[in-house]
Design brief:
The structure holds 2 protein chains of 2 kinds. Chain A is of the alpha+beta class. Helix content of chain A is about 60%, strand content about 5%. Among the domains of chain A are: about 25-110 and about 270-290, no CATH class; about 185-270. Chain A has 22 helices and 6 strands. In chain A, about 50% of the residues are buried. Chain B is an alpha/beta fold. Classes of the chains: A alpha+beta, B alpha/beta. β4 of chain A pairs antiparallel with β2 of chain B, so a sheet runs across the interface.
Chain lengths: ~500, ~900
């Protein structure tokens, strides 16, 4: 029964995400992309184009290099090396979605299925979150935590389009799950694989994975004694584990070696192309180069300590990307520090781990020179942060569940956050950052622009545009989705209550 | 350490005893450990700073070195050189080492003290933390946060005063805490001493005095109230005032610690006659801020939000944003948990630097600019960064308060430890050491290297003095490496006072700002005295912010003007001269005899006409055509004069008709030349000017056919005279003549840098006192601005009207007074008396000459040129060595000439 209820929740979640997935019903070829680059269209921003381009190139042209017709729609996230056009993104996402591209191509919806795969990953993330919370707290509060993650954060907006965040989060959550709950070393190979896949998907995110891997390693291969003398015991099989991790690096090295001509040259550090001018007779082209500063293009140049103050302001407090405006529910996570002496030992261990990883996320993206995430809806770089915070929030919920003021606060902020993030997922992610001139044309509180688009009936949802737009206004569609989410929450809350009474 | 392999496991064992021994050593000798560690760090930092030449990146650091050095290396040495704006303690310390040139120029004479205070302050931070926080790991981590701060490590390598201040600041907090807990007299003494020295180091120390005193009063009151049973408010107050212990504590501290403030005010009063000179004087921060405020750039004044924001960013950039946030979290923990109320109050004094700086910013007595404020007070990066180092003073506070967070749990310690290590590593990786960036690129560094390098190469004569305002150019003067005794500056008494008006007396070079940016030298020489100094100085080199002037160089044996007189080869040149107007028409023998006879009779200067227009036997028969014979005659005159060591004034044109004159010029260009008003056209018509200029060029650039010397290099020439007696037809047209004189003077100057230029005017006054019929130009209209070098006067009895007897030569008094008033050199260019006594108003000619020379001596006239010396004997104004009637006169001339030598 419980299993069925759980299944219903996540199937409905998947269906909801499907309702919001951006796309068009047809097999999108390179030339089609150019007409789908406007607001509320599937290829409105370059990150989705860039990743889709590599997938399309692999499937259609069987090449890791981008042909000219594909390269043209990837700029400015296009690289150029040794006469070849390459993507500036890490290739992992493009590889992972290949099966979905194939399936979609069969159903004349290659783009739609490709994008939908991200939603699937998002739902799996929500499930893992709920499972971790339920197992740690021995309660049913995980469902609320999982649903909060999906619907009350910018995770929703990026579950409907082709970005790396949910894949990144999935890998970290899987690694976390294994580390917390695994009692043996049977998953060491899987950890190595996860590390390798993460490196392919998003280079900086391995920093979030490293603490988990280190904890896993120490937990399963090391032990400390401090009785007669101070001793560290290290299981020799740790070498195998380390080997698995190193093996995980090999695919990245091979890819870099082949595409970027240097195994240690990361995709983002290749010389970029701002634009391609094709000759009138189509016989040749001229490339307009982009960023040439070597240090800025190096790994170290992307991260600077002096960026932290501004980045944290943008990510936490600002009206254009801040948690305070987009997901204020997560401010309640701070209550976890008040519980430090109350939480159980089994909860303490993931608490330390999650707080450390969250700190690492904030630190890393704090030093990143572009906290806005370019043109984006909400703080997209904090999606992993929201995932970990959801787990913490689940723990908080357990201890404050009987407090009426907490529940009131939680659900008020939850509903507010859902309203904002559904509006974003339904319309557009192309919200200009304040550092660009076009920002003056948008409201100061940027998500209000999404509500404006709802008012204009401008949606990016494939389902709405294809099946509902002629019958109901977008506003009604929006309200319907909200209603279904609220229903889901009600269901989740009931399940958590049932679990508590059952255990009592 | 042992490594064993047991059951597929590698077992690493650490000898518990050795670990415990190490920990025990650290526990017992923590101070020693900190001392050794920080000494090593300090040494490495100074080596790195020395290698990359950043010890003296701040201009202020060079100014500090100079401040100490000036006490003995100065035109006016003495302790008064410690000045009245910067507090003296750091400079007194530097004084002990700055006598050594290498220690001075490298900055290490100051760095040594910063380094020492860095080590000592680290020790006291450690002791303070150990006293407050019993947890040893927390103490270690938070001490580490202090000692490895990259901005602190850089500043401790410099002669700046931050480390000195921070040390006294920490010790005052430490001993205040000790006193509150132990009530030992020694602690009170050390507390008072710390604050006393802080008040003599920086003005932040004065705020430290106030906050410490306030805390002492509060603590005493709290203790008193605790022990006092009565609740009646009046009784409480009465008892407080009568409480001897409280009184003695407050009094002792106030006097001992406040003595520094008192001494400083007294110093200002004694040296500068103003007890608050440091606050309101011309070199105070207030004066500096006034200039900034005038430019509309004092943004934080009366803006509390911006003041707070500015200081927030200053602290954030110095200690690291994450470290700062950790400190804030720690402060919250401190507020929430600490049960000891006295400790709470005492530790609030750690905020006194923040209070001081925010108040200063708000009141407009300080400037602080950081990039995060998006304010630009000047161009480029320089305008976005100023005084960033002020935030560093809060590092002790952050280090202490973060301990209250770290000690809460192992996890908190881990977080704090990570932050403490991560922050300096990232700052180093990004090369974002804000204090270093400010020193190198921000407004704290005016780029002086290019100027100082240039001066080193071009002004390296150790006998030459350089005039500059050290309040503006201290860093520059330091960077030259020149002994400071070569500089004339604000602290050199009469040298400075004289030179800011007329630098000519002492200064060979002038280095000052090239804009109105608060340089007192610019204010005086350019604004107040209207650039008069340019008469004797020329712009040698212009830099971005600085101009360098050099005293005009005059070749040997050239006569030049200086200090309203004539000079040659560094000596005064007073002279007796003669007119010998037609010399160029004489034969070489006659020229030689004329000149030699003049020389033998004490005459050093001869005035010769070298013009003649409109006839074949004149020097310029047609425009641009020159009589070569007469030109050769000029060559001969100059060659002979040179051999006789005489000087020649060459008159280039004539207002009057003799030998053509300007009338001929007008005829050449088909302009009327009859009336006086017709003659005005000569001074304005471009064609006549062009012909004139061609002639000037011909003469000035001519090469002497006999000596091979270019005229413009010939020391025999006293001056180029523009015209004999230029006049205007009316007072209304006098300005045109003046403009012509300026134009032609400037023109000659472009051809010849060194010879003097004289105008040839007669010296009429606009009140018509010399010549009631004068029409201009007037001597009192030339003032000090004109481009020619000396004023001149022509005197003939028939042109002069005076109420006094003729022989009193009232006009000479008037000429002389006027010349002194406008600070110009003056000489009498033509003066003569007729042999016919009836034309001398009945006075004997010799008598008149005697009186003339008496008057000239009385008025210290620089030169007298009488009319007219020639071999031929006449019955007019001539003086001839062949005329027996002139024998006595010639003797008189000789006598007068000798009296001048």
């Amino acid at each position: 029964m419980k299993f069925l209820s759980t299944l219903y929740i996540f199937i409905i979640t998947l269906l909801l995400i499907s309702l919001l997935t951006k796309g068009v019903r047809s097999n999108i070829m390179p030339s089609d992309v150019y007409s789908l680059k406007d607001y509320s269209q599937p290829f409105e921003l370059s990150p989705e184009r860039g990743r889709y381009a590599l997938t399309q190139s692999i499937v259609e042209n069987h090449s890791l290099f981008l042909p000219l017709e594909i390269a043209g729609y990837v700029t400015p996230d296009l690289g150029y090396i040794n006469g070849n056009f390459v993507s500036l993104f890490a290739p992992g996402v493009s590889f992972v979605v290949i099966p979905f591209y194939y399936i979609g191509k069969y159903f004349n919806a290659n783009q739609l299925f490709t994008f939908w795969s991200v939603g699937l990953a998002a739902v799996i993330n929500a499930y893992i979150i709920s499972d971790i919370v339920n197992r740690i707290t021995k309660s049913g509060f995980g469902y609320i935590a999982g649903l909060s993650f999906i619907f009350a954060t910018s995770a929703l907006a990026y579950a409907t389009t082709l970005y790396q965040h949910h894949f990144t989060t999935l890998i970290i959550l899987l690694a976390l799950h294994i580390t917390i709950f695994s009692n043996n070393t049977n998953n060491s190979l899987l950890m190595g694989v996860l590390f390798g896949v993460m490196l392919l998907i998003e280079y900086p995110a391995v920093i979030f994975l490293l603490p988990i891997i280190l904890v896993y390693m120490f937990r399963h291969y090391c032990s400390l004694q401090n009785k007669e003398s101070f001793k560290i015991s290290i299981d020799s099989r740790i070498m195998l584990f380390i080997l698995y991790v190193f093996i995980g690096i090999i695919p990245t090295l091979i890819y870099n070696s082949y595409v970027n001509t240097n195994p240690f040259k990361l995709s983002g550090t290749v010389e970029s192309v701002e634009n391609i001018n094709i000759n009138n007779n189509g016989s040749g082209y001229e490339i307009i180069k982009g960023e040439t500063d070597e240090f800025k293009k190096s790994v170290g140049g992307f991260f600077k300590y002096e960026n932290i103050a501004n980045s944290w302001y943008i990510l936490l407090l600002s009206s254009e990307r801040g948690i305070l405006f987009y997901s204020p529910l997560y401010l309640l996570t701070i209550l976890i520090f008040n519980l430090k002496n109350k939480i159980s030992d089994i909860e303490k261990y993931p608490f330390y781990l999650l707080v450390s990883i969250n700190f690492a996320v904030l630190l890393l993206y704090g030093m990143w020179g572009d906290p806005w995430g370019g043109w984006a809806f909400g703080p997209r770089y904090l999606i992993p942060f929201f995932a970990f915070s959801s787990i913490l929030l689940g723990i908080v919920f357990k201890y404050y569940a009987y407090s009426h003021w907490f529940k009131l606060s939680y659900f008020t902020l939850l509903v507010y956050s859902i309203l904002i993030n559904v509006a974003g997922a339904l319309t557009t992610n192309a919200i200009v950052p304040s550092k660009e001139a076009e920002s003056a044309l948008m409201p100061t509180i940027k998500y209000l622009y999404n509500f404006e688009l709802i008012g204009f009936g401008k949606s990016s949802s494939f389902i709405y545009n294809t099946y509902f737009s002629k019958y109901i206004p977008l506003t009604v569609f929006y309200i319907l989705i909200i209603a279904i989410i609220v229903f889901l929450l009600f269901l989740a809350n009931k399940m958590s209550s049932d679990k508590i009474s059952h255990e009592n | 350490m042992k490594i064993n392999f047991i059951n597929r496991k590698v077992v690493i064992s650490f000898n518990d005893k050795s670990i415990k021994k190490s920990l025990n050593f650290y526990n017992k000798h923590g101070v020693l450990v900190v001392t050794i560690f920080t000494s090593i760090l300090s040494f490495i930092s100074i080596l790195v700073s020395y290698k990359y030449d950043i010890i003296l990146a701040y201009n202020d650091s060079r100014a500090h070195m100079n401040m100490a050095r000036l006490v003995f290396d100065n035109l006016k040495p003495g302790f008064a050189q410690l000045g009245g704006v910067w507090l003296p303690f750091p400079h007194i310390m530097i004084l002990t080492l700055v006598w050594n040139d290498w220690l001075w120029q490298s900055g290490i004479a100051g760095s040594i003290y910063s380094m020492s205070f860095y080590v000592l302050s680290s020790i006291y931070i450690f002791k303070l933390l150990r006293f407050l926080i019993k947890d040893k790991v927390t103490v270690f981590i938070c001490t580490l946060n202090y000692v490895i701060n990259v901005n602190l490590l850089y500043m401790q390598s410099t002669p700046m005063t931050e480390l000195t201040l921070i040390f006294f600041f920490i010790t005052s907090v430490y001993y205040l805490l000790q006193w509150v807990n132990t009530k030992k007299v020694l602690h009170m003494i050390l507390l008072a001493l710390s604050v006393f020295l802080a008040t003599l180091t920086r003005y932040d120390g004065w705020m430290q005095f106030l906050t410490t005193l306030t805390v002492l009063i509060i603590v005493e009151f709290m203790e008193f109230k605790t022990n006092f049973r009565k609740n009646n408010f009046g009784s409480i107050i009465k008892s407080i005032l009568l409480n001897a212990k409280m009184r003695s504590t407050i009094l002792f501290f106030s006097v001992m610690a406040g003595l520094g403030i008192l001494l400083w005010i007294l110093w200002n009063y004694l040296i500068f006659d103003d007890p608050i000179y440091f606050a309101v004087g011309p070199y105070s921060a207030r004066a500096q801020q006034f200039a900034i405020e005038s430019a509309g750039k004092l943004f934080t004044k009366h803006n509390i939000a911006l003041s707070l924001s500015a200081y927030w960013w200053a602290v954030s950039d110095n200690v690291g944003i994450i470290v700062l946030l950790t400190g804030i979290i720690g402060f919250i923990c401190f507020v929430m948990e600490n049960p000891n109320k006295y400790t709470k109050i005492v530790l609030l004094t750690l905020f006194s630097p923040a209070i001081f700086h925010i108040a200063s910013l708000y009141l407009g007595s300080s400037v602080l600019v950081l990039p995060e404020m998006n304010i630009n007070v000047a161009e480029g990066l320089k305008g976005t960064l100023f005084n960033a180092r002020y935030g560093l003073i809060m590092l002790p506070a952050v280090s202490v308060f973060m301990a209250y967070f770290a000690r809460r749990s192992v996890f908190a310690k881990s977080i704090v430890f990570f932050v403490v290590i991560f922050t300096p590593l990232m700052m180093l990786k990004d090369n974002y050491i804000i204090t270093l960036t400010d020193g190198k690129m921000g407004s704290s560094s005016l780029r002086v290297k290019d100027v100082s390098e240039w001066l080193k190469q071009n002004a390296d004569d150790s006998n030459e003095l350089i005039l500059t305002a050290l309040s503006y150019n201290s860093a520059l003067s330091f960077s030259t490496g020149f002994p400071l005794s070569r500089f004339i500056h604000e602290g050199t008494g009469k040298y400075w006072e004289s030179s800011v008006v007329d630098p000519d007396q002492y200064a060979d070079w002038i280095v000052m700002a090239n804009g109105d940016v608060g340089d007192p030298l610019y204010d005086s020489l350019i604004k107040k005295h209207d650039s008069q100094f340019l008469r004797n100085y020329e712009l040698k080199k212009r830099f971005e912010f600085i101009d360098v002037y050099v005293k005009k160089y005059v070749p040997d044996d050239f006569v030049y003007v200086r200090d309203s007189g004539f000079w040659m080869n560094g000596d005064r040149y007073k002279f007796l001269g003669v007119n010998s107007y037609d010399l160029i028409f004489r034969s070489p023998n006659e020229v030689a005899s004329t000149l030699s006879s003049a020389k033998n009779n004490g005459i050093d200067v001869v005035r010769v006409w070298v013009f003649g227009e409109g006839s074949e036997n004149l020097i310029q028969p047609e425009p641009g055509k020159y009589n070569s014979i007469l030109m050769n005659n000029v060559d001969y005159v100059l060659a002979t004069a040179y051999k006789l060591d005489m000087k020649v004034i060459l008159v280039m044109s004539n207002y009057w008709e003799a030998y053509g004159g300007i009338r001929q010029y007008l005829r050449w260009v088909d302009l009327p030349d009859q009336s006086a008003s017709d003659l005005d056209a000569f001074f304005t018509d471009s064609r006549t000017k062009d012909i004139y200029k061609d002639f000037i060029r011909e003469i000035v650039l001519r090469k002497n056919s006999l000596t091979g010397e270019l005229y413009k290099n010939d020391p025999a020439i006293f001056s180029w005279e523009l015209m004999n007696e230029p006049r205007s037809s009316s007072t209304g047209t006098a300005g045109k003549v003046t403009e012509w004189i300026d134009e032609m003077s400037s023109f000659i100057r472009t051809l010849d840098k060194y010879h003097m230029i004289t105008s040839g005017h007669e010296g009429h006054f606009s009140d018509f006192s010399i010549n009631p019929y004068a029409t201009g130009p007037f001597i009192d209209q030339f003032g000090h601005k004109s481009d020619f070098d000396a004023l001149s006067g022509h005197y003939y009895i028939d042109q002069y009207i005076s109420e006094k007897p003729l022989y009193e030569f009232e006009i000479i008094d008037k000429w002389s007074d006027h010349a002194k008033e406008i600070d110009r050199a003056f000489f009498i260019e033509e003066i003569g008396f007729s042999k016919r006594s009836g034309e001398n108003s009945g006075y004997d000619r010799l008598f008149l000459y005697e009186k003339l020379f008496e008057s000239a001596k009385k008025n210290d006239v620089q030169g007298v040129i009488v009319w007219n010396w020639a071999l031929k004997i006449d019955d007019d104004f001539g003086i001839s060595p062949l005329d027996p009637n002139d024998e006595k006169l010639i003797k008189l001339l000789n006598l007068y000439s000798k009296s001048l030598k």
